[in-house]
Design goal:
Elements: E1 8-9, H1 25-48, H2 50-57, H3 71-101, H4 106-122, H5 125-134, H6 138-158, H7 172-185, H8 196-227, H9 230-261, H10 273-283, H11 286-296, H12 303-335, H13 341-371, H14 377-389, H15 397-408, E2 413-420, E3 423-431, E4 438-444, E5 447-455, H16 465-534, H17 539-567, H18 570-590, E6 598-602, H19 612-633, E7 637-645, E8 651-658, H20 671-682, E9 686-691, E10 697-704
Parallel strand pairs: 6-7
Antiparallel strand pairs: 1-4, 2-3, 2-5, 4-5, 7-8, 8-10, 9-10
Helix pairs in contact: 1-4, 2-3, 2-5, 3-4, 3-10, 4-6, 6-7, 6-8, 7-8, 8-9, 9-10, 9-11, 12-13, 14-15, 14-16, 15-16, 16-17, 18-19, 19-20
């Protein structure tokens, strides 16, 4: 069962919105004119490329001769043309939407230009146009290489607010320009063994371009981690997801692309060739869609779920394909056979058997990467319990809890705040505090002992139902640990007070012996020596010295009795608690004078054996209470009642009730009443004095019994 407790959220938190740079009137007009000119040119290229698209719609693939075409390749070729044209139209429409609605924003204007060029150059219209009208696709391929370099890197370093973050990222644009020029000037034919120099140059340019992209992705990570607000973080997720997915697929698809380009014109087309080309043009729609969602609808869909599923099924596909190829290739190499149906069936069956276990393990890994262990509450609680079990000292309990919570749930901040003298103070924290803090109460037996404060994974993000359930359960379990730490701290404080009290008592006893008995005994020894010296010659003086010694010894004995009495009243050892109070009550009755006070000691049943500390405290509280009755109450009758409830481990109740004049208004508490409360507090009990004017005073003391530290049995 999870305790139904609601977290609290800082109501003053607001998501900071960074102002996006706007285009001024002059630049806005220039940008609009340039965009319109490019849009007209792009539209013209798109329309005039349709004749070449008809060949693709008819099933013709550029890298395979007509005589090697078949039905399957024709279908996929037509789908490829549809995908290319659809991506171009989609990018063009999205660019037009940015132009019409948000062109005054510099970021939206840049994206509009980017999508406009993307629609013509990357999506395929320029490639089809140049193939049809120029009978050469090299121009389109060169421009594609240029578009990949500078504009895409500019998108990485400037998105989403149009500012260079960090500042040094502005140097990536001039650094990427030479790469764009070199890629534009390179020959477009696929390198062969005879063109080693060109191959080396392409390799160097490819490695450099990958490095520039890696730095560009790092700037997005830096912006995401340290600068962006909640909305910008969502936008960054969409852009990074789209570009990473597209670039990753582009690098993978380059392998079959180069293979297909190297095929002779009369070579048969492999069955997967048409599929790889279709996949390439389908992947081109990822970037415009993600860019548009990032700017306009970034909070409409949960990008984290999309990233999660992409990671799972992307890695799953790679593992399954690798497993299939390894099984087929390994068994074929072992038995020196190829194209064997049995081997294919074995590989297919093995893939079918392992598909679900692999998917589940990958899903758990993706969940842990993005959300920690929120989908595995039992494992989280088990890990927390094990770490607390291995904790050697109470000082490490709080750090263990917050560190475990932050690590297993991938939280940037976790802290424990405890109640201290009516205020909630942070005891320990882990990570960097976030502007948005959510608090969960730490309770023990329905009493709040503190708070578990956590920061969401991203600013402005809220926890889902699974996170809430797990955090509430953790808070419930951590409440017990916090209570145990507080009890341990209270116990250590109590031990310190006990040791301090013992040392103070030893100091007092030493002072009494040193300042009282010591000098007195030393003076008596001197007098004994003097008496012995004067015994023969001056007997009168000797007699006087002996008389003084007798008086000094009496005083010494009085001091000794006082010291012994302060350690423990002798009456308790002689008569027990009830007898000692009864003896003192008789003394009070005799000293009451004209009031003729009558004191009754009521003990309903014999008391259980009491600890020595409880006996001493009860005796002194009773003495002080009776003394106050005699001095101040002007009472004629008083009842002292003693009883124990709960057996040996229960509590001693001492009640003193008189029928005197009661408590007076605005009278400060005296030393006697304060001493009574202090003696009760030392044992973890309480002492309450109550009463009204003219209705007497009632003193109630409740003292807990401490087991296994008892004195003798009371017999009175």
């Amino acid at each position: 069962m999870i305790e139904q407790t609601s977290p609290t959220i800082n109501p003053h938190h607001q998501v900071e919105v960074t102002a996006v740079p706007q285009l001024s009137n002059g630049w806005l007009k220039v940008a609009r004119v340039i965009w319109i000119v490019l849009a007209l040119a792009a539209g013209a290229i798109l329309l005039t490329s349709l004749p070449n698209y008809t060949q693709t719609f008819n099933g013709q693939l550029a890298h395979v001769s007509e005589q090697n075409q078949n039905t399957i390749t024709a279908i996929f070729a037509a789908l490829t043309g549809v995908a290319s044209l659809a991506t171009a139209v989609l990018s063009f429409v999205l660019a037009l939407v940015f132009f019409r609605r948000r062109f005054t924003e510099s970021v939206a204007a840049g994206l509009s230009f980017y999508l406009l060029l993307y629609a013509v150059i990357m999506a395929g219209p320029l490639e089809h146009w140049s193939a049809y009208w120029l009978n050469d696709q090299s121009l389109a391929l060169r421009l594609q290489a240029g578009l990949i370099a500078v504009p895409t890197i500019a998108l990485l370093v400037l998105f989403p607010n149009g500012r260079f973050v960090p500042n040094w990222s502005r140097w990536l644009l001039p650094l990427s320009t030479p790469w764009a020029i070199a890629l534009f000037l390179l020959p477009t034919e696929v390198p062969t063994a005879s063109t080693n120099t060109t191959s080396t140059i392409i390799m160097v340019l490819a490695i450099g371009l990958i490095g520039l992209f890696a730095i560009g992705f790092y700037t997005q990570y830096y912006r995401f981690r340290y600068v962006s607000n909640a909305i910008e973080r969502q936008q960054t997720k969409w852009v990074i997801y789209g570009l990473a997915l597209w670039l990753g697929y582009m690098m993978l698809s380059s392998i079959p692309y180069f293979y297909l380009e190297q095929l002779p014109p009369d070579a048969p087309a492999p069955w997967w060739g048409a599929i790889s080309v279709l996949g390439w043009f389908l992947s081109l729609s990822i970037v415009p869609i993600c860019l548009t969602v990032a700017v306009t609808r970034n909070r409409l869909w949960d990008i984290d779920i999309l990233i999660n599923r992409t990671l799972v099924y992307g890695v799953l596909t790679a593992v399954i394909v690798g497993l299939y190829v390894a099984v087929v290739g390994g068994i074929g190499a072992l038995f020196q056979t190829q194209g064997n149906t049995l081997i294919t069936l074995i590989a297919t069956g093995l893939v079918a058997i392992l598909f679900q276990p692999i998917r589940e393990r990958l899903q758990r890994g993706a969940n842990r990467l993005l959300y920690g262990h929120r989908h595995e509450p039992f494992e989280v609680l088990t890990r927390l319990g094990q770490r607390l079990e291995n904790t050697m000292s109470p000082e490490t309990v709080y750090p263990t809890i917050v560190e475990t919570v932050a690590q297993v749930l991938k939280l940037p901040y976790a802290a424990i705040a405890v109640n201290h003298h009516g205020h909630v103070e942070t005891a320990v924290s882990y990570g960097k505090p976030t502007p948005h803090i959510i608090s969960y109460p730490l309770t023990y037996q329905s009493e709040e002992v503190g708070q578990l404060n956590v920061g969401p994974r991203q600013p402005g993000e809220t926890f889902n139902e699974a996170d809430e359930r797990l955090l509430l359960n953790i808070a419930r379990q951590a409440g017990t640990a916090v209570h145990a730490v507080q009890l341990t701290a209270d116990l250590q404080q109590s031990r310190l007070l006990i040791v301090t009290s013992r040392e103070e008592e030893r100091r007092r006893l030493r002072r009494d012996l040193h300042d009282g008995l010591g000098p007195s005994l030393a003076a008596q020894m001197l007098k004994i020596g003097s008496a012995r010296a004067l015994l023969t010659d001056q007997p009168n003086m000797t007699d006087q010295l002996l008389a003084e010694m007798e008086s000094d010894i009496e005083n010494t004995l009085t001091d000794l009795r006082r010291i012994i009495y302060n350690l423990r009243p002798p009456a308790l050892d002689q008569w027990g608690l009830v007898g000692a109070l009864r003896a003192y009550a008789e003394t009070c009755e005799q000293n009451s004078g004209e009031a003729q006070l009558t004191i009754h000691i009521a003990v309903p049943k014999p008391l259980t054996p009491l600890p020595a500390a409880v006996e001493v405290a009860a005796y002194h509280i009773g003495r002080e209470g009776l003394t106050n009755v005699v001095r101040h109450a002007q009472a004629s009758h008083c009842v002292v009642q003693l009883r124990v409830d709960g057996g040996e481990n229960g509590r001693l109740h001492l009640t003193i009730q008189d029928d005197g004049q009661g408590l007076k208004d605005n009278v400060p508490t005296g030393v006697g009443l304060a001493s009574m409360r202090e003696r009760a507090d030392e044992l973890g009990g309480l002492c309450v004095v109550s009463g009204e004017k003219g209705a007497g005073v009632r003193v109630t003391a409740v003292l807990p019994l401490i087991p296994n530290t008892r004195s003798h049995v009371n017999t009175s």
